Amino acid sequence: MPREILLNAFDMNCVGHIQQGLWTHPRDQSTRYLDLDYWTGLARTLEDALFDGIFLADVVGVYDVYGGSADAALRGAVQVPVNDPMMLIPAMAAATRHLGFGVTANLLYEAPFLFARRLSTLDHLTRGRVGWNIVTGYLDSAARAAGFAQQPAHDDRYDLADEYMALVYQLWEHSWDDDAVRADRVAGVYADPAKVRAVHHHGKQYRVDAMHLSEPSPQRTPVLYQAGSSPRGRRFAAQHAECVFLNGQSVAGVKAIVDDIRALAVAAGRQADDIRFFLGATVVTGATEAEARDKFDEYRAHVSSEAALVHAAASLGVDLARFDLDAPVDASASQAITSNVQALNLSQGPQWTQRKLLEQMVLGSRQPPIVGSAAQVADALIRWTEDTGVDGFNLSRTVAPECFVDFGRLVVPELQARGAFKTAHRAGTLRDKLFGRARLPGSHPARARG
User: Fold this and answer.
1) Is residue 64 part of a domain?
2) 20 to 30 A from 351, CA-CA: which of 96, 108, 140, 145?
3) 189-191 and 181-184: which strand pairing?
4) What's the predicted TM-score (pTM) here?
């Protein structure tokens, strides 16, 4: 019997997310991203379909690499305008009981002391359904917006992140004892001062001498997501991550990353099953294969090649507009998402061109879509889990919200019939649902006192 698949919706508080151009489809509702009812309705749709969570991406810069300006990004709504994803979570949590929320936040531009309080607050308000996607960014435009000339080098960003994590772990895990809060009305004592302590962190990047402002939340530390697949990113994931988000490559490539991160985690003193892996996936389905194919052709007519290249140029760190369609693209000096450059070099060879890249972007991104009937989609998803060791999928939106409605209506029952998907939500926090425990295990570095 196949393993039970975990499932997140992959979305962003903007118009154009991953599949560039599909916001122009007449049934797409992503232009309603300013409407809170849109998000609470989506949350209820996902919970009814038994999704484990919604994974909210974010960027704090603009895609201005292509053509040397943000003009094309603005024309195509390529993740701009974009609003703060954290503001959506309390409303979506109030509309649901079980749905988890993975939220992206770039630690380079977040003061750790205040950020720790913000995540604790969300964990309290959602009753323990929050996860944090740890990112260090890849856009120079974000660095300039924050007052820097440019972002730090790729590996230097991870070195800074290690210190950041050590600091927020101390705040979340060790500032307040579990029994510090007494709420004793008779004695007039809310918290026992003897069980609350200041954190003293004096590091290369950060200096903090303060107690955490929030009392212990249901999970203390939010579920930790991370998406780095570069060698340095894998080491960071092996040390810190509980959930790793992978972009689709070959079956062999995904399996190699999964196996490597698990081995690195064990070498760091963690357990191999302390980490869950989510593979990015794009699904177009219908009642029959023919219906799915017709829908795919309909979607494809709305793809924007320019917007797709804008997104790719930013993530690859190279201005694709400088190259002719069939000229080899040199991305060797990239300081952006280096794993994306490596993946392209592996799949297309080091002499890849824009034409080859566009041939991959059939729905406006480099993620190859799974197109077919519910049975065919279920076959493909189960095969990925069996052949690579991934635990589940982040489903990126195509035409929203119908893509998630279709998946819940057609694919979820098919997976359930095969014993590959749950038939009801489990009780507890997000970590309870994913790992069967509310708090981090003792093997995680966050549990060690500084």
Assistant:
1) yes
2) 140
3) antiparallel
4) 0.93
